[in-house]
Each structure stands twice: as structure tokens, then as C-alpha cells.
Amino acid sequence: MNRSLPDAPASPPSDSVWESITGCLSFDRLPDRPEPDPSSTEAFRWLLVFFFLIRLIYIRLLPIVPQEAYYWSYARHLALSYFDHPPMTAWTIALFTAIGGDTPFFVRIGTVIYTTATLSVLFAATRTLFGSARLALAVGVLGMCTVFIPLSATVATPDPPLQFFWILILLAMAKLDAIFPTYETLEAALAAEAG
Length: 195
Prior knowledge:
Shape: flat
Number of helices: 9
Number of domains: 1
Largest sheet: none
Oligomer: single chain
Strand content: under 5%
Radius of gyration: 23 Å
Helix content: 55-70%
């Protein structure tokens, strides 16, 4: 039997789907100077508040998972470090359970706060680095939609504090880069500071 294969399309599948997905970004270049965009900043704030409130409702519904119970037991015996994890999660759980009691909500509220703060700092760092609130909005929305960030925002693990402080370092480096645009200037400032 001689079966002929159907002809391949002359052109790739319609690009209109891809264009509609990326059209809202439409960054053919980064801005030459900062572009203040109050609507992007306002949209990001509303999205942040919306997801914060959704997470506050959601963390009340989940039972404590074994991993959280492990960190919760750390919180009952505070130390400067633990065998396999840094202490920030335990300190955060201890703080909020001391305020509100030993409930799943107060075990997890710190992760929701860290995640919200992480996304805020990520927005600020992107806007500082690239001078575009619209790009910062796109990065913030992508951060809200990835699998890792929403999951880490609902279960108490060491990841939310770690993400927050790493993104905070990114923002600090971005601001430092804005103050000292060349390495020679930065080296001179560090040398002067070192005395």
C-alpha cells in the first residue's frame, strides 16, 4: 500500500496566538530613560493585594503538611541554626504563633508576607534596573504565575525568606549600579569606604 503523507503546512502554525500572548509586552527595546507608568504600578499593586487576600483565605483551608510540622517543631525550640536548614522559617513561625496561637493560619502567615514582599521588591528591582514599570509589571505577573512562588506562598518552608532576601540583594545591587554606573566609580567608593 502506498500511503502518502499529508502535505506539511507551507508556513508554521498561525503566529497570531503567539503574538496575542506576547503582544501585551511588546518590548522591542528597553527604554533609553526611565518611563514612569503609573497605570502599570497601580495594576501591580492591585494584583498584589488581590493575591495576598486570596492566599490569606487559602492558607486557612489547608491542613498542616509534614514538612511544615517539621519547621513548626523548630519554632518551638529556637536556635541560631539547625542541622539541615537556616533558622529564619522557625523564627518567623515562632513570631506569628506567639501573636496568634498555634494554628495553621499563623504557621503560614509569614510565608504569605514574605512572598508578597518578594514580589514587591522584584517589581522595584526590575523597574530600577530597566527603567520600565511596564516591564516590571510583566516580571511581577510572571512571578505570580510560576509554579514555585505560589506554592511557596502557601506552605511554610525555608524558601520564602530565602527568596525575599536574595531579591532584596538584587534590588540593593540595582540601586548601587544606579549610583555607581561604572566599576571604576564603585571601586573608588569602596576603596574610600574601606579607608
